[in-house]
Amino acid sequence: MPDQLTEEQIMMRDMVRKFAQNEIAPRAAEIDRTHRFPRENLEKMAALGLMGVPIPEEWGGAGCDFLSYIITVEEISRACASTGVILAVHTSLGCFSTLYFGTEEQKKRYLTKLATGEYLGAFALTEANAGSDPANLSTTARLEGGCYIVNGSKIFITSGGEADVYVTFVRTAPGRGYQGITCLLVDRDTPGFTIGKKEEKMGLHGSATTELIFDNARVPEENRLGVENEGFKVAMALLDGGRIGIGAQGLGIARAALDAALDYAKQRVQFGRPIAEHQAVQFMLADMATRVDAARLLVYRAARRRDMGLSYTKEASMAKLYATDTAMQVTTDAVQILGGYGYCQEYPVERYMRDAKITQIYEGTNQIQRLVIAKQLLK
Amino acid sequence: MKIVVCLKQTFDTEAKITINPDGKINDQGVSLIMNPYDEFAVEEALRLQEKNGGEVTVVSVGGAKAQDALRQALAMGADKAVLVTAELAAMDEYSTATILAKAIAGLEYDLIIGGFRAVDDGSAQVAGRVAEILGLPVVNVVTKLEVADGKALATREIEGGSEVVEVPLPAVITAQKGLNEPRYPSMKGIMKAKKKPMEKKDPAGLGLDAAAVAARVCALEYFLPAPRAAGKIIPGEPAEATAALVRALREEARII
Q1: Does the record's keyword annotation contain Transport (chain B) (predicted)?
Q2: Which CATH architecture has domain B2-213?
Q3: Residue A64 and residue B186: Cβ atoms within 8 Å?
């Protein structure tokens, strides 16, 4: 069976599910309401080894495969999508960039702390004029006396102000597009680096999304990740894995919405019987469940191909596209099934719907995913 | 300090119980968990080990599926496991306790801990029987445990209060809710669990023949509780309805 998991993957999924449902889900509504960063969730996850699931043990991780990490994101996001995205960005982008491109020294200094959860990682690529088109980025850096002097700003940075280390992309060669980008590891306490405006978002209220400001920020040359002017390779290497992670987040949110809709439909009585006995509702539930299962198969397939060392660019984009569109569709349908109650904050489905929307946008919009899929099909 | 924990794989507490046409409980597709009371026992053993050093061995009698519960205990931090696979037509508390006691007799132990009951059949007999067979003192329904100088100081629930009991080791202790808050197995623990030793035995290998473990008690029938009947709404004006309600409570329900 394509969704067959190994004994370890099942144990791990059961553990994360139980942990997430008991320890994380009960706080999710409060975190959403108060826009509070869920630090305590991350501390508990760190204690269980969930902040470095796919990172080798020698660097402080749990040494599991990528699929185990993806299942972790799914289960955590099912309980709290804000915590899910913090985990996904930290692992897919923060940990993996350092694992793939870090020197021995950088891995010792950063990766061991990231993978154990002592440090939280963030990823700073997006700028006001460089979203889907990162070749246009204009935050500059010039090497001077052993330091990169960084100037400019980044926007929409997940865990801004909360993270300890920021994987930051800067322009080191003007006018050279993709060929002039360098990747730097920026410590939170770097002189000249400050956190700008925190966005007020539609959903994911627990996740801090901020602007980063670099005003002659001095980043030591030894914090350069990879080769100068070849920073775009770092971004490219992380992209596909990151997409599977966000697919898993969408899958988790969709799952939570389906569960809520099922529970409600069995209890809510109209016209003398539970609404789950009305065919109109049954058809919606059937479509929702089918989409969730299809999304899971696509997400797990992409993760498995990655674990097997096969190409997975197309599969990662399909997983991200389908699972996050599913999240939007299923959460919208869940609100519909719960009717007036679904629109009220007393029930969780309106939160799921608000949280779902961003998954279609970040980590490559779903329009970009379609471009990637088409390009792979036609090449 | 060597600690043995007895544990059992049970139905998930949220599982929907159904009866097969042959009158037996349907276990197809039911999700299974480690008996929650046994989880308290594992946790307590691990805490004692962390404090005093030593070794924690987990033991289970059951089918191949009991292996999952043992693996979970290993992932939580237990050192080794013993699985006794008993494929008997019928088993009762006597069979299980006889096999368990025999398996434990071959191990070194200072303390034996188990859940005070299993959430499925709920007989609360097995640990007590094991103690009896091994000739050990037993303290049941323990909510606090301290071990020092070859003695165990156990606090147990009694009607209206608590009792503190001192017993010499080795002894059998059964865990009640409140003893501790069981840990989740960590990712690293899960990855290590498969590499830890799991010894597999069967009753014959332990020197027990079929007659020695044959069930003494036979379950005659299983049936589900009657579904709760729908409530009754008494219509009419408040005064009339109240009179009708009082009549119903006196004549139909016969509670006033």
Answers
A1: yes
A2: 3-Layer(aba) Sandwich (3.40)
A3: no
